[in-house]
Specification:
elongated, 111 residues
Length: 111
């Protein structure tokens, strides 16, 4: 093929492909969550359980009698606030990124 003036034949550029996986990725393949995430999840579960426990009750013994205890502050206000707080903490615990640590140094045996 003849090359004309001003025309360069395209050359293929080969990219270097690193086929070996970095050691950090393999070492970090364990748990997705950190200890802090699990602690926040347990706190969230505690809020939710307490919220549902406070919501229990308020029924009347007889179907002919209406019990106004169903609409007290504990069941109508406090319990939903605790439930919403628990769900917000749970979502935060799931979305929070664990702190990055140098996992290569952690995998070294202690001498």
């Amino acid at each position: 093929m003849k090359e004309t003036a001003g025309y360069k034949k395209p050359t293929l550029i080969k990219k270097k492909v690193n086929t070996a996986a970095p050691a950090k990725e393999i070492a970090g393949a364990g748990f997705v969550f950190d200890k802090e995430n699990y602690r926040l999840l347990l706190i969230a579960i505690g809020f939710i359980v307490v919220g549902f426990i406070l919501m229990i009750g308020g029924r009347s013994d007889s179907p002919d009698f209406f019990n106004y205890e169903m609409f007290n502050f504990q069941r109508l206000t406090l319990s939903p606030i605790l439930l919403i707080t628990g769900y917000v903490i749970g979502i935060f615990a799931i979305m929070k990124r664990p702190k990055k640590t140098n996992s290569v140094e952690q995998d070294k045996p202690v001498q």
